[in-house]
Every structure is written in C-alpha cells, then in structure tokens.
C-alpha cells in the first residue's frame, strides 16, 4: 500500500470506507473517505484491523507491476554474449567560472561529426562526440548541463546518469570550494574523475598548482605515480581537447566495464523535458540499455506515449538510439521530470497503466505535502 485515499485502501482490503473513517476518528484523526492519507496512517489502520500493511517503495511498486506483466526493469537481460560495449556518459563539474560551459561548447564544436553535419548543434541537454583512440573510433556522451546540481538532483532520485566526471579546475585559480564539493559528489557516487586543468592560455596559469592541490584530496596525477588523468586544456583556444577525450576513453577502459544489451526494449533516463508549442511534450533521454526506436511505446515518469520521432543533437531524424545515445523524443502525452526513468513496453495499455499509477503517486505526495503531512518516504529522506 502507499499513501492512497481511504476509499482506495478500503476497497483493497475489502471493508467499508465509512468504517475506516470511524476507526480513524477514534484514533483522533479527522479524515474524510476521499482524502489521501499517508503511509503511517495506513499502517496504523492496518494494525487496528489486523492487516499486515507493507509500505512499498515506488521502485518496488513499478517492479511488481512490471513483473506481473513479465517485464524486467533496471537490469540488462540476456546472456553475457548479448552485451556490447557502450560509450561512457560524462558530466562536467567544477567551480563557477572555471570554464565548464565553455569547455562543453568547445568539445561540441570541435567534433568532426558536428562539422560534417553542418556544425549546428541544438541544445537538447546532451550530445555525443567521437574521437580516435588507438586507431579506433570511440564515442563519448556528454551531459550538457554543467555543475553538480543536476548531478545531485538526479542521484537524489536514484538515477545514476554518469559514468565519468570531468572535473574542471582553472589553472589560474586552482582548487576552490565548489571544486571540492564536486569532487566529493563524484567520489560518493563512485564515479571516476578525469581532471581538466583549464585556462592554461592565461599568463598567470599554473597547472602544477592544481595538481598539487588535488593530490591532497586523493586525486593523484598519473605523472606523480597516481591513477588520475590530468589534462591541460584551454577551452578558449581549443587546445588539449583531443587529449581530454582520449583520457576519458582510457579511464573508462581502465576502470569501468561499460556494456549493455542493445537487443532488448530500451530503458534509460529522461534528462530534460519541456512543452514545445509546435511539437508538444519533448524529452531528451539517454538510453542505458536496449535500443529505442521510432514507433516504440514508452513510459517516462508519469508520461507515456508512442515515439513519433527521434532527433539527434543536430535536429536530424534518427530511426533508433542504441545504449548511451542521447535523443530527443517526440510523441509523449506529458512532460516527464528530469531524472525520471523511461522504459519501452510492448503494450500501450501497460504504458498507460504505469503512467497513471505514477501520476497518482505524485498527486498523493503533493497532497500530503500540502496538508503538512509527511509520508514515510519523506521521513526516510530526512
Ligand atoms: P562556468 O561557470 O564554469 O560554466 O564557466 P564559463 O564557461 O562560463 O567560463 C567563465 C569565464 O571564463 C568566461 O568568461 C569564459 O570565457 C572564460 N574562460 C573559460 N575557459 C577559458 C580558457 O580556457 N581560457 C580563458 N582565458 N578564459 C576562459
Ligand atoms: Mg556555466
């Protein structure tokens, strides 16, 4: 059970809602039958009526629902040989004004693919670049919203979008409070860090200062015998960018085993979404496993719909998005939240049902909040 209306709850356990109102009245709580009650109250009611009320987390509830339809979530399906390498997904973090935005722009513009496509990237919240490492073409996905706020917001929702963090430190400034904060977040999430020592074009740049300072925080440069890659870059002059890309790929290869099964229903994360005047609800998703295709039915948070079109970061229509590929999805019924999971389901009705369940959950949570009541979930978060 979850924070639901008394009527729903009564129906579930097969009793009259009015009698629940009475029980609660005797316990000193004035609640009407249509009102939403929190998990605690449901548990108390359960005890009074000798029912074993279990509070289910939203994730468990989704999983249960999916299991009843014989669908998995959150894990690759299939055997080991079904897994294929996937590109790393990277977040750029660091102190304000150290050059995160400039670096993301420089990487986007320096990309060969971007030039071939006409060089005009649209801001969809993420983009992919390619680089050659050991004679092999390798892709990297960058999440385009710099800063650790997006990172922590998503993590708070249980979403792990990032495989590697690029920590930007300005060579003239060195380590600053938000550098340390960003580093803490990455380390808490167990995400490997590549350090971009930026602004090396400046006359007062001292790239070795950042190296020395970060060593004290446990990031020991490879050249000092550690295992963290530091790369000198200038986002302004466009230098060091290829080395940075290579270091990201090498760090991924050394520390992570990034693989996913491309041959299953797609799952992943919505990282950005909004209502577009002409196109309706649009969401940028990053596919984490499986392959997303035009025509697929998907649920993203409390939104669902059939994928009418998929666009890449150049605004080009694409037919499918494999693991780690960001894509703009058109065709959803509503705007999902940043950090919401999405998944493709085989049946439109299931999509609708899951979306409706999630919406009801959000509504209940909002109601509980407005009435000043706290759900168990809130208490656990505190
Ligand atoms: P953010 O707050 O980390 O996103 O930093 P920005 O990308 O907005 O950059 C802050 C300022 O530093 C801007 O004025 C940039 O033009 C400048 N900047 C960024 N990278 C470089 C660089 O490599 N060299 C120089 N000289 N200036 C840079
Ligand atoms: Mg910025």
TrEMBL record:
Coiled coil regions in record: none
Location of this chain's protein in the cell: Cytoplasm
Binding of GTP, residues: 94-101, 144-148, 198-201
Residues covered by the Tr-type G domain: 85-257
Family listed: Belongs to the TRAFAC class translation factor GTPase superfamily. Classic translation factor GTPase family. IF-2 subfamily.
Function description: One of the essential components for the initiation of protein synthesis. Protects formylmethionyl-tRNA from spontaneous hydrolysis and promotes its binding to the 30S ribosomal subunits. Also involved in the hydrolysis of GTP during the formation of the 70S ribosomal complex.
Protein name, as recorded: Translation initiation factor IF-2
Organism per entry: Aeromicrobium camelliae
């Amino acid at each position: 059970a979850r924070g639901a209306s008394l009527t729903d709850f009564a129906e579930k356990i097969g009793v009259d809602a009015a009698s629940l109102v009475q029980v609660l009245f005797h316990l000193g709580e004035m609640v009407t039958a249509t009102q939403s009650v929190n998990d605690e109250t449901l548990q108390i009611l359960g005890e009074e009526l000798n029912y074993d009320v279990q509070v289910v987390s939203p994730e468990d509830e989704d999983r249960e629902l999916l299991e009843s339809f014989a669908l998995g979530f959150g894990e690759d399906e299939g055997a080991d040989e079904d897994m294929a390498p996937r590109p790393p997904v990277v977040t750029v973090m660091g102190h304000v004004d150290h050059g995160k935005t400039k670096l993301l722009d420089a990487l986007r513009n320096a990309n060969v693919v971007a030039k071939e496509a006409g060089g005009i990237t649209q801001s969809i919240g993420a983009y992919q670049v390619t680089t050659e490492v050991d004679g092999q073409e390798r892709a990297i996905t960058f999440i385009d919203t710099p800063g650790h706020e997006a990172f922590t917001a998503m993590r708070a929702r249980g979403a792990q979008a990032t495989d590697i963090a690029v920590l930007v430190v300005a060579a003239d400034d060195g380590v600053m409070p938000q550098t340390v904060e960003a580093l803490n977040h990455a380390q808490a999430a167990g995400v490997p860090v590549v350090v971009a020592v930026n602004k090396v074009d400046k006359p007062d740049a001292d790239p070795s200062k950042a190296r020395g300072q970060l060593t004290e925080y446990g990031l020991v440069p490879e050249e000092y015998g550690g295992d963290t890659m530091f790369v000198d870059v200038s986002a302004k002059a466009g230098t060091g960018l290829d080395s940075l890309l290579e270091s990201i790929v090498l760090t991924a290869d050394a520390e992570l085993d990034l693989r996913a099964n491309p041959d299953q229903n797609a799952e992943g994360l919505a990282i950005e979404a909004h209502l577009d005047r002409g196109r309706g609800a649009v969401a940028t998703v990053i596919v984490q496993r499986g392959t997303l295709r035009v025509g697929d039915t998907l649920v993203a948070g409390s939104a669902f719909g059939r994928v009418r079109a998929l666009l890449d970061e150049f605004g080009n229509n694409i037919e499918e998005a494999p693991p780690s590929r960001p894509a703009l999805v058109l065709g959803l019924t509503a705007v999902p939240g940043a950090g919401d999971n999405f998944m493709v389901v085989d049946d439109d009705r299931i999509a609708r049902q899951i979306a409706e369940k999630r919406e009801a959950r959000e509504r209940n949570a909002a109601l509980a909040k407005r009435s000043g009541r706290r759900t168990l979930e809130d208490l656990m978060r505190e």
